[in-house]
């Protein structure tokens, strides 16, 4: 057994040996069973006591020894115990053969079972030697019978016609042949198991190294200089001569030096980027999309001779690196040998496993760098968004969004388009753009049904208008404004009101990935702020307005009463509060249904508006009740207004279904501030109380005193 294997698995071996040792109880049962078959005289059972007792003793003895080594396994003592126990077991099996019939005994089968159980525990040669020892013991036993050195006295088998030593040469020879064949089989099986265990150990060592490699990369992933240390670890793991990491530049389509092992790192980083027309391993794996090998780089279709001569490598395996999370091409991992080297399938598989870890480490590092740059932009954006959130009025919010976006991405011009209720886009605010351009741009937005350009994407970027064919439909507009690059970010693409935030640069401008991410995030936040502003404006209006009659609601009434109390108190004025309840409204609801009742409330509210002054405040109090605040009004004026309201109600003809016509009357309660009360709760309660007294008095009643 290899040294590393015995060192790595002593606990496993110890436990397995305990299991095999306890199997002796099964062998004892087999022994006693076959011995009993040969015993017709029960008195001879005493002859089994000594061997059975010794077997039990040694089984317990070795089990205790193995248990003592569980906590602190020692391979030397385990091997010694194992060899000693095998010798003892060979002795007992031979003794059992003697007691159960000699050459006619079925117990030699135990040799087969026993050594089969030892396949995993002993090296092939040791196992073969012990089996030869067992065969020698069996042969010696038979030879002793033949020469008369040992008396053949089986347990009850002599009377049953068992064979004598001089009659069993063929049987003994057959058993020896079986034992020999079993020895050969166990020898090869043990060798196969050893090879599998050795391979498992190598795989385990590789996985351990892979884990260490991953931990190293993760620990130093925020430092690009750690890539050289990573290359050194890969070099040691694969026993390669050199390791190179390349980087692919999407913008220039060039292969750049990222890192190499410590021997080549400084030299490799000083090498110039390979021109676009030169064939390299990195270009090849990007084109093919999988790993490639070259056992002679000077005769390989994957790299030009000019590039190959720059390195000492003769055999190279190149594996593509793909980044997370979008699986984009990062570069390549190059494993090189300075002499002839054949890459086996297993070696290629291991290199690709390492490739996957390197890809994750490089992705994490670059994502960290991008995150740091993005964090700076986000910090700047946070300040911009904070300023936007502080003001939800459209008149100041829209200019703030445009100016913030322009400042965030360092654009010279900007414009904000929002979709209107009719579905057309309208420029709400712009900076640095002419009216004629905005007019034409808005027209084209509308021609595209609200900007189809943004229907299936969140942004649209043109880094150089003179080099991008997508600008052809707008070249006439661009030539007039003379900007060189622009980007459009969609606002609220999934919401009801869509929009577009356009940024313009006077020179060609490549928007980085981080800027795109921040631009999209800003557009998302701006969309949310615009939605909030819209909701805020609508909520502010709805919070103080009754939806059905479009009159001020109870909340607005309470605010207005508080304001009138403060004003009346400050200037010494009075005001009247009139509470109105419609007569017969319940009958209309019951007869014609609530939709008709709602229509009646609208007709009544319109009639009340026509009767009141512009300075009077009319509100729906709830249900079929209305409230009126009459500023700077005493009891006489309040009674006059109440009478006008009563007459207006009785003269208003209601339009009901089936050409039914009906007139309504109303009961009123009037309270005067501060004559009747000088607090909000009391003035409201006083008017309400008098209104209910009026209802009890009869239709059209007006109560103004308690």
What do you see in this structure?
Strand 6 (413-419) and strand 7 (425-431) form a beta hairpin. The termini are far apart. It is built from 22 helices and 17 strands. The protein has helices spanning 3-8, 10-22, 24-37, 49-68, 75-99, 109-117, 124-147, 169-219, 226-238, 265-270, 281-288, 305-308, 345-389, 394-408, 435-447, 475-481, 513-543, 554-571, 585-592, 594-611, 635-650, 680-697; strands at 242-249, 254-260, 292-294, 315-322, 329-337, 413-419, 425-431, 459-462, 485-491, 499-505, 575-583, 617-622, 625-631, 653-656, 660-663, 665-673, 702-703. It folds into four domains: 3-200, no CATH class; 220-366, Beta-Lactamase (2-Layer Sandwich), CATH 3.30.450; 391-539, GAF domain (Beta-Lactamase, 2-Layer Sandwich), CATH 3.30.450.40; 554-703, 2-Layer Sandwich (Alpha-Beta Plaits), CATH 3.30.70.270. The strands form four sheets. A five-stranded antiparallel β-sheet has the order 2-1-5-4-3, with helices on both faces. A five-stranded antiparallel β-sheet has the order 7-6-10-9-8, with helices on both faces. By secondary structure, it is α+β, with helices and mostly antiparallel strands. Helix 8 (169-219) runs parallel beside helix 13, helix 9 packs antiparallel against helix 13 (345-389) and helix 13 runs parallel beside helix 17 (513-543).
């Amino acid at each position: 057994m290899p040294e590393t294997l015995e060192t790595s698995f002593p606990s496993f071996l110890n436990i397995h040996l305990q299991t095999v040792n306890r199997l002796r109880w099964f062998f004892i049962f087999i022994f006693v069973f076959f011995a009993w078959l040969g015993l017709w005289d029960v008195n001879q059972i005493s002859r089994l006591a000594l061997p059975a007792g010794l077997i039990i003793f040694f089984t317990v003895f070795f089990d205790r020894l193995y248990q003592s080594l569980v906590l602190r396994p020692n391979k030397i003592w385990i091997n010694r115990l194992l060899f000693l126990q095998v010798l003892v077991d060979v002795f007992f099996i031979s003794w059992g053969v003697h007691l159960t019939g000699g050459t006619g005994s079925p117990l030699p089968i135990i040799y087969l079972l026993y050594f089969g159980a030892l396949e995993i525990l002993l090296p092939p040669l040791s196992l073969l030697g012990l089996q030869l020892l067992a065969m020698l013991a069996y042969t010696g036993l038979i030879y002793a019978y033949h020469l008369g050195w040992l008396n053949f006295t089986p347990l009850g088998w002599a009377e049953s016609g068992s064979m004598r030593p001089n009659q069993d040469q063929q049987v003994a020879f057959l058993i020896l042949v079986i034992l020999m064949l079993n020895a050969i089989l166990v020898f090869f099986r043990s060798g196969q198991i050893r090879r599998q265990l050795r391979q498992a150990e190598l795989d385990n060592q590789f996985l351990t190294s892979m884990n260490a490699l991953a931990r190293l990369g993760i620990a130093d992933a925020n430092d690009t200089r750690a890539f050289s240390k990573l290359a050194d670890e890969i070099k040691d793991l694969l026993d390669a001569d050199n390791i190179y990491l390349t980087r692919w530049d999407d913008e220039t389509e060039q292969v750049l030096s990222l890192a190499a092992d410590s021997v080549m790192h400084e030299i490799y980083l000083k090498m110039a980027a390979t021109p676009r027309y030169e064939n390299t391993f990195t270009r090849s794996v990007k084109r093919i999309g999988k790993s490639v090998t070259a056992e002679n780089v000077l005769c390989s279709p994957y790299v030009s001779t000019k590039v190959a001569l720059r390195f000492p490598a003769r055999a190279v395996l190149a594996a593509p690196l793909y980044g997370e999370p979008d699986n984009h091409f990062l570069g390549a991992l190059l494993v090189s040998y300075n002499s002839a080297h054949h890459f086996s399938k297993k070696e290629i598989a291991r290199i690709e496993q390492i490739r996957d870890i390197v890809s994750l480490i490089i992705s994490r590092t670059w994502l960290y760098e991008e995150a740091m740059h993005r964090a700076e932009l986000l910090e700047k954006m946070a300040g911009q968004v904070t300023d936007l959130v502080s003001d939800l009025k459209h008149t100041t919010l829209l200019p703030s969004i445009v100016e913030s976006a322009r400042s965030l991405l360092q654009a010279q011009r900007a414009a904000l388009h929002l979709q209107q209720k009719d579905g057309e886009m309208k420029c709400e605010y712009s900076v640095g753009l002419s009216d004629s351009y905005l007019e034409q741009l808005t027209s084209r937005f509308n021609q595209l049904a609200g900007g189809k350009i943004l229907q299936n994407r969140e942004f649209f970027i043109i880094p150089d208008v003179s080099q991008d064919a997508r600008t052809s439909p707008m070249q006439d507009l661009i030539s007039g404004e003379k900007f060189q690059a622009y980007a459009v970010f969609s606002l609220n693409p999934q919401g009801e009101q869509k929009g577009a935030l356009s940024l313009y640069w006077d020179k060609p401008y490549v928007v980085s990935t981080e800027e795109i991410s921040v631009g999209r995030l800003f557009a998302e936040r701006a969309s949310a702020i615009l939605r909030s502003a819209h909701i805020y404006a609508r909520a502010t209006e709805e919070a103080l307005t009754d939806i059905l009659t479009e009159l001020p609601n109870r909340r607005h009434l309470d605010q207005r009463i508080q304001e009138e109390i403060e004003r009346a108190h400050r200037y010494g004025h009075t005001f009247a509060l009139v509470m109105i309840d419609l007569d017969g409204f319940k009958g209309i609801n019951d007869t014609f249904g609530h939709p008709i009742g709602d229509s009646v409330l609208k007709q009544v509210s319109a009639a009340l508006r026509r009767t009141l002054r512009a300075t009077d405040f009319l509100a729906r109090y709830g249900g079929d009740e209305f409230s009126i605040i009459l500023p700077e009004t005493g009891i006489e004026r309040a009674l006059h207004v109440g009478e006008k309201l009563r007459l207006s109600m009785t003269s208003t003809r209601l339009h009901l279904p089936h050409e039914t016509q009906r007139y309504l009357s109303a009961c009123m309660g009037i309270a005067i501030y501060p004559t009747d009360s000088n607090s909000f709760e009391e003035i409201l309660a006083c008017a309400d109380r008098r209104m209910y007294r009026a209802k009890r008095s009869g239709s059209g009643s007006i109560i103004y005193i308690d």
